[in-house]
Design brief:
about 130 residues, alpha/beta, Rossmann fold, 5 strands
């Protein structure tokens, strides 16, 4: 059973051995990520020269479950814009929060702006 939803920033902190890596490492095997946030991770890795296959291998090896972005998640993500836009949250940020809300799980992120938003879900900063 999953215990946490990972934001792309948390996954990238782990992969790039940045501060907060340990918090993500402890959640591996019990973590989920949305396909939207997976796309963000793949985009960053590709920009750094990593092949697509590398990202797939990483997610499979780490045991992070990838959750399809459904219509319900899309609608909740869109609805979150009204309460998050003043804080600069992106579509990917809101997608992560929407998944955390649906699954009733905390979200792990590096983005401090998330704590300024009352989105009905626990936000855990990894650094």
């Amino acid at each position: 059973m999953s215990k946490v939803v990972l934001d792309s920033s948390a996954v990238l902190a782990f992969l790039q051995d940045e501060p907060g890596r340990e918090a993500v490492e402890q959640s591996l095997g019990d973590a989920v990520i949305s396909t939207v946030n997976l796309a963000e991770v793949v985009t960053k890795l590709a920009a750094g020269g990593e092949p697509f296959e590398f990202a797939r291998l990483i997610f499979d090896k780490l045991g992070i479950a990838v959750i399809d972005f459904t219509r319900d998640l899309a609608e909740d993500t869109g609805a979150l814009a009204a309460r998050t836009s003043a804080h600069g949250l992106s579509l990917g940020d809101r997608a992560c929060i929407a998944l955390a809300r649906r699954e009733k799980l905390p979200a792990l992120t590096t983005d401090r702006a998330w704590q300024e938003v009352d989105a009905g879900v626990r936000i855990d900063l990894i650094r």
